[in-house]
Design a protein that fits this description.
By secondary structure, the protein is α/β, with parallel strands linked by helices. The protein contains 10 helices and 14 strands. An 8-stranded mixed β-sheet has the order 4-1-9-10-11-12-13-14, sandwiched between helices. A 4-stranded mixed β-sheet has the order 3-2-7-8. A two-stranded parallel sheet has the order 5-6.
Length: 312
């Protein structure tokens, strides 16, 4: 299976720049799924760094890429925690804005101890969205790849158009649907969605047909993550499935975010399509053996699962 014929812009200080969500995730492990009007003792509770793009940038940095994160944090204590959780992983945070008076995004994540599956309850202060003129083009265009999640849609669309003008490759973790999402994804080079996004976006209930229909909205590469089943990509108009690795899940929080970080790693390394997906599935799967979205494995931990993937 072939790779991608990509020309990355030269002389960039970072391999990847990410623009999108950060969060503090309060991981709450429960012995089962609670029923209404019930009481249940918590098995474990701990705060972790989270957020789609912030976690993807941490994964990129852990794997050895030069990563930069752009976003807003609140000026509350949890904003400090979120920012430090990114900074300590070697991710550049010089373009992060601390928004006065805003509460940082947070999520209460209920994890079923038996399956590792999670339910996310979240809140985002509207002041954490970029206002017109606040986003820096210089910061956005400092990487060979720009990774976005589209939650702050206006800022994301601006950033993606800047990247396109400068020949920067764009990758999107698509889950949220907004009024202008269709306009955004037409400019994305690598659109990798959640498992439900194609059906919700197109209104088509059959997953394969929905993914095929999604391709009509973008000239870029289209794929979806499928949780424990791995991922699926459209290759020459046909769906190709890539199996996940067998693991005993502890917490699936952040698996998709980490998948995107690993995908970007393989993309920059110039690997074949199958090698990239094998690697991303393995990294995302191994993440699920630890609590929180930032339980990213090292390259050494991943290698035993990937005999056909080149060394980093």
């Amino acid at each position: 299976m072939k790779g991608f014929d990509i020309s990355f812009p030269p002389d960039k200080p970072f391999d990847v720049v990410g623009l999108g969500l950060n969060s503090v995730d309060f991981i709450t492990v429960l012995p089962g799924v609670p029923s209404p009007n019930s009481k249940m003792e918590i098995v474990d509770f701990s705060p972790h760094g989270g957020g789609q793009v912030a976690t993807a940038m941490v994964a990129c940095s852990r794997l050895g890429l030069r990563a930069m994160y752009i976003g807003k944090v609140g000026d509350d204590p949890w904003g400090d925690v979120s920012l430090e959780s990114i900074r300590k992983e070697g991710v550049n945070v010089s373009a992060v804005t601390v928004e006065p008076g805003a509460r940082n995004q947070f999520a209460i994540i209920l994890v079923d101890q038996k399956s590792g599956e999670r339910t996310i309850l979240w809140r985002r202060d509207k002041r954490l969205f970029y206002r017109e003129g606040e986003l820096s083009r210089k910061a956005v265009c400092q990487g060979r790849v720009l990774h976005v999640d589209g939650h702050d849609l206006e800022a994301t669309l601006t950033a993606v158009l800047w990247a396109k003008e400068e020949g920067i490759v764009t990758v999107m973790d698509a889950d949220k649907i907004d009024a202008r999402t269709g306009e955004l994804i037409q400019h994305i080079d690598f659109l990798i969605t959640s498992s439900t996004f194609p059906m919700r976006f197109t209104g088509i209930t059959d997953p394969a047909k929905a993914l095929d229909a999604l391709q009509e909205f973008t000239g870029g590469f289209v794929a979806s993550t499928l949780g424990p089943d791995g991922a699926v990509a459209l290759v020459d108009g046909s769906p190709v499935y890539f199996k996940g690795i067998p693991i005993e899940a502890v917490d699936t929080t952040g698996a998709g975010d980490v998948f995107h970080g690993a995908f970007i790693y393989g993309l920059i390394r110039g690997w074949r399509l199958d090698q990239i997906f094998m690697f991303a599935n393995a990294v995302a799967g191994l993440k699920c053996t630890g609590l929180g979205g930032r339980a990213v494995p090292s390259l050494e931990q991943v290698k035993p699962y990937l005999p056909d993937v080149p060394p980093g």
